[in-house]
Design brief:
The chain has 486 residues and is mainly α. The chain has helices at 4-22, 27-46, 49-53, 77-103, 109-128, 132-150, 156-188, 206-219, 231-234, 240-249, 251-267, 269-275, 279-298, 302-322, 326-357, 373-387, 394-407, 412-437, 453-471, 474-479, and strands at 59-66, 69-74. Pfam families: Proton_antipo_M.
Length: 486
């Protein structure tokens, strides 16, 4: 494949957004263009699977400000995995969004789909970034393009949440991430992602490396490490398709992808393992996993509960990176995909429940499973995947994370992962249990009352994928071969 395709694939969703804006009067055409472009993007990204698996690293430099400082795209295994997840789920989210937005008579639907497309362009740009400058530019583009989605309703609550969203993400990126990039360039003379990392010859001590690593990880606010996580629950005021975008397709996955990419291609796994510079952030990730799970248990609002679940689950990936072991990187990388399909299913289900019944709270779901059996069955399947129970795909990512903890000598982290899984059971399985085993409320429909098909079909497909990835994890292992066990 020509490296020129990298730039074309990054630009494709943004170019498509112009067509979406021009066809706003014809919703079927507008959404048809969106779905067709999403499929084309996925096929374009998928065409690189063979070359990247074979060891090729397609690279495209569009321009340089100074030697080594320019807009550069390079495709490597973790980036390809992130791009595949974002592009494959975009088409399903678009179909779901069409059903949700129409079913709830949402306003400004054309603006919604335009901003959605631009945010996918930013996510693909992050996935393909060949250096820290390119990564930073597309990271900021993703923040700005999703702000109108978070504030979509335009009410006081949405505007306040939007300020929290924008304030935390811009403050962390400009205050921490940008200085970390400058320091990296001064230390190493390069900001290009390099196999084995840049820091091994930089003469950086353990304390300095730990501080720089912390700057990068906290600068990546989209990874939602505590205490810079509040933007994520605040963003739950947005329509459910936006929540799906934030939690599964683009925003948070961009954050944890960046953590993995920095660990592998800036610091280097061997450097972090020998220096121990990642250990402080490893314990921060472990605390975030448990604390966010405990908070999730206290939330009655379904989307708020899922939001704190996401904060916890993201730190699984950060934990895999900070273990500084090949198996930890493998487990964290696989969890990007496994969590994406499971969490998008849960948010699809939350949106379907609201569309069909206008219920938002867990305590209001009693007996609703008889009226919405497909939705709550999909919720149950996705919950099992997040918990890590066979035969669901999340089993594999948690298995490799536990192996990574053992191989890196951090056996206490196995306990953290096990306790977190038990907490997952408490706050996730309560929902299908209430729906199927509690007595219905008097206003619960006694007949089939699923959301529109455009909502139900995507959540059924993503739930089925949770099972498929357990049966057939080989594509992930082949793509992530540099970190897979021999």
């Amino acid at each position: 494949m020509s490296a020129l395709w990298l730039g074309l694939l990054v630009a494709l969703p943004t170019v498509m957004s112009l067509a979406v804006a021009a066809t706003g009067r014809w919703p079927n055409l507008r959404e048809g263009i969106s779905v067709a472009t999403a499929i084309a993007l996925f096929l374009g990204v998928a065409s690189f699977i063979g070359p990247v698996t074979d060891g090729l690293r397609p690279t495209l430099t569009l321009f340089e400000i100074l030697p080594g400082l320019g807009l550069t795209f390079t495709l490597e295994p973790i980036g390809l995995l992130f791009a595949l997840v974002a592009s494959s789920l975009w088409s399903l989210t678009t179909v779901y969004a069409a059903g949700y937005m129409r079913g709830n008579n949402e306003h400004a639907q054309t603006r919604f789909f335009v901003c959605f497309a631009i945010s996918i362009s930013a996510a693909i740009g992050i996935a393909f970034s060949g250096n820290l400058l390119t990564l930073f530019l597309f990271y900021e583009m993703l923040t700005l393009s999703t702000y109108p989605l978070v504030t979509h309703h335009g009410d006081v609550e949405s505007r306040n949440s939007g300020r929290v969203y924008l304030g935390i993400l811009l403050t962390t990126s400009i205050g921490f991430f940008l200085p970390a990039i400058v320091v990296t360039y001064l230390l190493t003379g390069s900001i290009t992602f390099t196999d084995g990392g840049l820091m091994s010859g930089a003469g950086l001590g353990v304390v300095g490396a730990a501080v720089l690593y912390a700057l990068f990880l906290y600068g990546t606010g989209k990874a939602a490490l505590m205490p810079f996580h509040r933007w994520l629950p605040a963003a739950m005021v947005a329509p459910t398709p936006v929540s799906a975008l934030l939690h599964a397709v683009a925003v948070v996955k961009a954050g944890v992808f960046i953590v993995l990419k920095l660990t592998v291609y800036v610091f280097g796994v061997d450097f972090l393992a020998h220096s121990g510079a990642a250990e402080p952030m490893m314990w921060i990730a472990a605390i975030t996993i448990l604390a966010a799970s405990l908070i999730a248990m206290t939330r009655d609002n379904l989307k708020a509960r899922l939001a704190y679940s996401t904060v916890s689950q993201l730190s699984y990936i950060v934990l895999g990176a900070t273990m500084a072991s090949s198996l930890g990187i493998l487990g964290g990388s696989m969890h990007i995909a496994m969590h994406a399909f499971a969490k998008i299913t849960l948010f699809f289900c939350a949106g379907a429940i609201y569309t069909a019944s206008h219920r938002k709270n867990v305590s209001d779901l009693d007996g609703l499973g008889y009226a919405m059996p497909v939705t709550f069955s999909a919720f149950f399947i996705a919950s099992l995947s997040l918990i890590g129970i066979p035969p669901m795909g999340g089993t594999w990512s948690k298995w490799y994370l536990m192996e990574g903890a053992a191989s890196s000598g951090h056996t206490v982290l196995i306990c953290v992962l096990a306790i977190s899984s038990l907490l997952n059971i408490v706050y996730l399985l309560e929902i299908p249990t209430r729906a199927f085993f509690h007595n219905p409320r008097p206003d619960t429909p006694r007949h089939w009352a699923e959301a529109p098909w455009a909502c139900v079909i995507p959540l059924s497909i993503t739930a089925a994928a949770c099972i498929l990835w357990f049966i057939y994890p080989l594509p992930f292992l082949e793509l992530l071969a540099p970190w897979a066990p021999r």
